[in-house]
Amino acid sequence: MRDNNLVYGYTIAPTEKELTVETLWNTTRRWMIENPEHLPEKSFIHWAINEKSKYTMCHFWSNFEIVDLSFYRSAAYESYFQHLDRAGGFFYERWGDAPVHSIAASMLLRKEQIHWFEDVGYHHPGYAHCPNKPEMHRNCICDKGQNFMYHGMCNRRFAEVGDIYKDQALELAHLPDRK
Predict the structure, then answer these.
(1) Model confidence over 75-102: pLDDT tens digits?
(2) Which residue of 6, 11, 136, 179 sits 20 to 30 Å from the alpha carbon of 68, by its own alpha carbon?
(3) In angstroms, rounded to a whole number, what is the distance separating the alpha carbons of residues 137 and 28?
(4) pLDDT confidence bin for 129, thresholds 50/70/90
(5) What pTM did the predictor assign?
(6) Which of helix, strand or coil describes residue 127?
(7) pLDDT (0 to 100) of residue 144
(8) Are 7 and 109 in contact (CB under 8 A)?
(9) Annotated catalytic residue: which of 16, 65, 135, 171?
């Protein structure tokens, strides 16, 4: 990952249960508006937030993630995490590490810094990923018929959207909530 300037890697990207993150995006939006100095000039936030400023519920599952720890130790991530902690959502809504890590990664990194380990098979009850590459099949034990990632909305979105500029991200943060 270091050789390719990657910061965050994952294997599965499902959608989150809305009841567990009801106020996460609005809390994130407030942090973005109050802390624009921490936002990079370009980021992949459009993966997690659509053009109407609605949280897509997409998240990188943290059961398998590889991260450059300097990202979690950065001033921007620390500021964001402290803001979330003060808001109380970890306790009152059960905000999990996966949606928090995912929004932070998409908000503070560029797409080219995030890597899908497509060649790593992974299974968790209800979700599975089997590599599509035929040369990988002999190394994996999985049911290709239950391959979640190639059909999931979040993986399609990952392929379709790109980075947006800081001013565009801030415009999304300023849009009214579209529930």
Answers:
(1) 999 999 999 999 999 999 999 999 999 9
(2) 136
(3) 40
(4) confident
(5) 0.92
(6) strand
(7) 67
(8) yes
(9) 65
Q: Three-state SS string across 128-169, please?
A: EECCCCHHHHCCCCCCHHHCCCCCCHHHHHHHHCCCEEHHHH
Percent of the chain with pLDDT over 70: 95
- Long-range residue pairs from 167-174, CB within 8 A, at least 24 positions apart, any chain: 168/46, 169/32, 169/39, 169/43, 169/45, 169/46, 169/107, 170/32, 170/33, 170/36, 170/39, 172/45, 172/46, 172/49, 172/51, 172/53, 173/28, 173/29, 173/32, 173/33, 173/53, 174/29, 174/33
Return the pLDDT at 151. 78
Is 118 labeled as catalytic in the residue annotation? no
Q: Look at residue 139 in the predicted model and tell me its pLDDT.
A: 72
